[in-house]
Specification:
Length: about 375
Amino acid sequence: MINNTRPRNVALAYSKENALNAICPYFTMFPLEYPLRVLKKHKKDNPVVLDPFCGRGTTLFAARNLGMNAWGIDSSPVAVAIAKAKLASCDIDDPIALAEALIASTDPIDIPKSPFFKHAYHPQTLRDLCKLREALLVLPKGSDASVILRAAALGCLHGPLPKDLANAGYFSNQMPRTYASKPDYAVRYWKEKGLKAPKLDVITVLRRKIARLTGLSFTSPNSILQVFQGDSQEADTYDAINAKPSLVITSPPYYGMRTYVQDQWLRNWFLGGPSEIDYTAGPQLNHGGKDVFAKSLGSVWRNTSSISSDRLEMYVRFGIIPSAAVNVKEIFKNSLEESGNKWRLVSVRAAASADAGKRQADQMKTDSAAAVEFDFHVERI
Ligand SMILES: C[S@@+](CC[C@H](N)C(=O)[O-])C[C@H]1O[C@@H](n2cnc3c(N)ncnc32)[C@H](O)[C@@H]1O
């Protein structure tokens, strides 16, 4: 188990022992404090934990550290690739040894030639990245080391230029860390500022990232197969879960937030997606209005309920994007009614006051000043 003692007021996300949780940034993750607090409260009951919108797997990481059984579902391949890493354990040298072997033995056939890729990466860096990408795509069986390598590569794929190349943490020209810029905008920006992609050795950058993952060798109580890609609105998505969840800790997409997949288009490319933005972005909740949204969220609660143990408690952090003028509590309450089950509201409080560190809404590109987020705790009756 990882020791989480730290100086007061330092958000857990920034502490060294939680570097694995930070292996790759992800838009709108919730702070580690939130699931940890809930899990510690319920640990004595030895719950089976489920996060049906697991994102980058913060709930799973917290559960792993407390030795608890946890499952995660997400419809985004990028989220799933990162979340799997939260359950993986291996010798710290294994992912790099694998990367060296894969790069040495692969001749890339698909090197993108668009202006974006030409400016985003130095040709040599891009070539090695493509070797790694293609080799990981055809790797027959996912090992924990390959899961860590894939998530670390996603984490290094784009981010700010380093002041000193010897400390580079990302392979790319200047980019945001959490989401990928739109190609035309990025190319214009790099040209205007005269920014050039640095010549970086892929293995060196990866080694630096992986060396920080201090928690990696702590044996995980969970298998990497306990996180999988699926639409949590569909009942058969849950067939893969061979345990009865009793505790849900989750954060559904905020009402009005539909761009999880498009904003991660570059990481999606690394996972085998197209080398441009794919606007037909897979299964999402229906954001076409507050009623249909509540209905689609309700189907997730119904599916969860149908595979759960006799007792089921849910902790849900949920909000709206600032421009969506709707009542968050009402949408959540309606989603519970739509589930067809009966629920008791145990507590509801504003999320902003609940945790140290950044709020989820702060990571949205929009002005977050007016965003509203709540932590709901409900139990099925
Ligand atoms: C707010 S984020 C969750 C963040 C997570 N708590 C974390 O710490 O990283 C919501 C997630 O729901 C996923 N999602 C959206 N619609 C979904 C669906 N129908 N089924 C499964 N996941 C979905 C998105 O891909 C996104 O990763």
